[in-house]
Design a protein that fits this description.
By secondary structure, the protein is of the alpha+beta class. 21% of the residues lie in helices and 43% in strands. Strand 4 and strand 5 form a beta hairpin. Keywords: Signal. Residues 1-22 form the signal peptide.
């Protein structure tokens, strides 16, 4: 009887050990996945100085990525960056043929395409919004400089660049008619899929 109880106790200890090992192993693999996601996020950035103050947007906490889009018609690439306070910057550039490293203008109407830098300083729509191109300023050269397009990983293109445009008030009611963005830089990872075409 004593032997039987010892055997049951050993068996119970063995089962508890197995459960603990399995739980620990799952936690470690989850930690590895989370760490890998953090490393990818650390590789991406979007920032600029607005009136000397650093403005930063980070990848979405939910999707762990920036909101990016590419339109085949017009070869237009766009980045939608939002700061923690709800302010946002939309940046887009396009090419007649294909996107390459180089300098891209802000342009109000290039065969129907609108590209440039657009700043929304408040979470909701307001008359303080500015853009690098307006009706009065339909073109601004050298707005975005794309310094790197790395497509060696077909599942994750790396796009880097800089931007420092003059921004103009969109609405007449904005007393600040123009301002300058400085030291703008971005590094984003575009992942082609069924909704986001390759380029």
């Amino acid at each position: 009887m004593k032997f039987n109880l010892n055997l049951k106790g050993m068996f119970a200890s063995f089962l508890v050990s197995l459960v603990l090992i399995a739980c620990n192993s799952n936690t470690k693999s989850e930690d590895k996945v989370e760490a890998a996601a953090t490393i990818v996020n650390d590789d991406e950035y979007f920032s600029v100085k607005i009136e000397g103050k650093l403005w930063e947007a980070f990848p979405s906490k939910e999707f762990k990525a920036y909101t990016l889009s590419y339109k085949e018609l017009g070869h237009q690439f766009s980045i939608f960056a939002e700061a923690e306070d709800g302010s946002r910057i939309d940046l887009s550039f396009h090419a007649k043929d294909k996107l390459t490293v180089g300098s891209y203008p802000s342009i109000r109407n290039d065969d129907g395409m609108l590209s440039g830098v657009f700043y929304y300083p408040e979470a909701k729509s307001s008359d303080k919004e500015t853009a690098s191109t307006t009706m009065e300023h339909p073109v601004q050269e050298n707005t975005v400089q794309v310094t790197k397009i790395d497509k060696s990983d077909k599942a994750a293109y790396i796009i880097e660049g800089t931007f420092s445009p003059t921004m103009y008030a969109i609405y007449e009611t904005n007393p600040v008619r123009s301002s300058k963005l400085a030291e703008g830089k971005f590094r984003v990872i575009y992942r082609p899929d069924s909704m986001n075409p390759e380029f």
